[in-house]
Amino acid sequence: MTGALQLPIVDLSSPDRFSTANSIRQACIDHGFFYLVNHGVDEELVKKVFEQSSNFFSLPIEDKMKLVQRNRRGYVTLYAGKLDFTSSSTKGDFREGFFIGPLADDLNQWPLEEDLPSWRSTMETYYKKLLSVGTELLSLIALSLRLDADFFEKLGALNDPLAKMGLLHYPGGLDCSNEEIYGASAHSDFGMITLLATDGVPGLQICREKTEQPHVWEDVPSMSGAFIVNIGDVMERWTNCLFRSTVHRVLPPGQERYSVTIHPFMFTSVVISCVIISQVFRVDITRLSFHITSSITLQLSK
Ligand SMILES: O=C(O)CCC(=O)C(=O)O
Ligand SMILES: [Fe+2]
């Protein structure tokens, strides 16, 4: 069953940080998803990122394969990944991607400047800008949890700003009537928060009650100029499940679709403890730790 949904809207430019923090709190309790408006990222920059993304994915496959993923950076082919680990489908998700990690460590792969002029600088500008939006958001999230605004910063979230940006391309035109293939199969994101920009083509759906069967899927319409923000598994654990890491997916649209994700903070060395203590612990506190291997494979122990 599906239906359309109107997510809460959070205005990042509001001078009243406490009221913004309260609206974030309510949005994260009710949906785990919200629209972020007045975020200060220039519309022209977002447009350029989408244009450059399309330029890359339009290259011949041989050229894209020269940048095939190494160290979790670079090009990932159609069907190579499957976000729903529980799915019995033998095929992966019907999308291709290009992943960019921390700019300082020299592990990123870039198209040649002569092939795609300004490609690298556009992506680097967007990455840095989104990291600063994420930083502001993280301090508001701390306030929303009745913590000091610099709570996560003091834990080292900004010392090691391990962020991952994904350019995603859903080619469309897939007739999937016989097979269970999605653009992105059902999953929750594993980090703290995700900021998502889409080109407006529909396809994203969320399921708010992940334990209920059958799943009820609701369409998330895009909002012009807004980012879609969602809570990830690590933040769900920080909050003892007060904030939801909501399951979502992307249907294989008949129409071509582009999106850009960024997961700004992936702590590498911090033990995740609960900041919301209630009568009922919904997570196992004694095992709330996580590890990221050098290849940024995150294993959350449950
Ligand atoms: O493309 C989208 O709209 C969402 C993608 C997504 O959920 C993901 O890559 O984690
Ligand atoms: Fe996701």
TrEMBL record:
Alphabetized UniProt keyword annotations: Iron, Metal-binding, Oxidoreductase
Fe2OG dioxygenase domain location: 161-269
Pfam families for the chain: 2OG-FeII_Oxy (PF03171), DIOX_N (PF14226)
Keyword Oxidoreductase: yes
Iron recorded as keyword: yes
Domain of life, per lineage: Eukaryota
Sequence similarity: Belongs to the iron/ascorbate-dependent oxidoreductase family.
Protein name: Fe2OG dioxygenase domain-containing protein
Native source organism of the sequence: Hibiscus sabdariffa
